Amino acid sequence: MTEIPEHLLKRSAARRGKSTGDDGGGADASASTAVEASASSGPAQPPAVVQAAAAIPRDPEPVPEKPVPAYVQASLERKKMPMWAMGIIPFCALLWAYSFAGTMQLPDVEDPLFVESAALYGSQGCAGCHGGGGGGGVGYQFSDGEIYATFPEPIDQIVHIVRGSAAIAGEEYGDSARPGGVRVAGNRGVMPNYPSLTQNELELIVFHERATLGGEDTSAPEYQEWMEHMREVAEGILPDHEIDLELFLACANPEFTPGATGDVSEDDAKKCPGPHAKEGEEVAAE
Ligand code: HEC
């Protein structure tokens, strides 16, 4: 450490005693001159001059405050989200999730059951002869309840599609009390047979013809169950089966289906295509 000469220490002590500003120097000198000058010109001198003179250089402003940058200032003044609003956020998220999930279910066109059954009706050629909307053409009309007027239950319709009309040419089929008269196979031409369709495909096509095109009431619990079953089929969750015409004839109603026995066992009744519980009970009761 270098020793500070005594005269310098004295000078700085003297300055501090005078309460000088930070840089002393020339400003200091001129200020003190001003003070002396005002003092010498008499006590009547307005003190404002003294104060002004003293204020400029020597006001002991310790550390000048750093100016706050404009962007910080802006962020401080900006309105903040109130705390109560934070609580609403999870509800908004829930509401969004709920409404989003809703849109996934709403339109039937998104439902694999409707998509698949309609696709099969087209790809198997049914639409070509019966109309895309089931209004009829070469073949009979399905819409406006026409289809379930012929076949009160899906199973008899399924048998008819598997066998076609040539196999029972000239025979009555379907509901004999049908408005417009009982159907006679071959009266309108030839309904081709479809022995190679699987059980799942048959059920889906029949559902499309009855519910989507025919407007059948689907609200019964067993019908809803059947739809749920087919929906899982359409989603590829459930396995498919080769058809078993013998089983179908046992499931079908002899009143509506030539060659049907209706003697299905209680166990086999569960395997019958169509709305299950009811189907089994009804066929067993015949
Ligand atoms: C080549 C034309 C043609 C095609 C393809 C066709 N059908 Fe038919 N379908 C007919 C004709 C014609 C009849 C009436 C036959 C008769 O007079 O027995 C008929 C009758 C029917 C009936 C009886 C309706 C009633 O009220 O009596 C059903 C059910 C049926 N068809 C379903 C289907 C399904 C399901 C498909 C597709 C898998 C299909 N058809 C494909 C021509 C066709």
How would you describe what is shown here?
With 286 residues, the protein is an all-alpha fold. The protein has a domain at 108-241: Orthogonal Bundle (Cytochrome Bc1 Complex, Chain D, domain 2), CATH 1.10.760. The protein has helices at residues 6-17, 25-40, 47-58, 70-77, 83-105, 112-123, 126-130, 146-150, 154-163, 199-213, 221-234, 245-251, 266-269, 276-285, and strands spanning 172-173, 183-184. Strands 1-2 form a two-stranded antiparallel sheet. α2 runs antiparallel to α3 (47-58), α6 packs across α10 (199-213) and α6 crosses α11 (221-234). The longest helix has 23 residues, at 83-105. The chain is rod-shaped and about 140 Å long. The protein starts with 5 loop residues before the first helix and ends with a helix. The relative contact order is 0.09. Residues 124-126, 128-130, 138-140, 147, 150, 157, 160-161, 165, 174, 183, 185-192, 194, 205, 209 line the site of heme C (HEC). Heme C is lined by residues 124-126, 128-130, 138-140, 147, 150, 157, 160-161, 165, 174, 183, 185-192, 194, 205, 209.
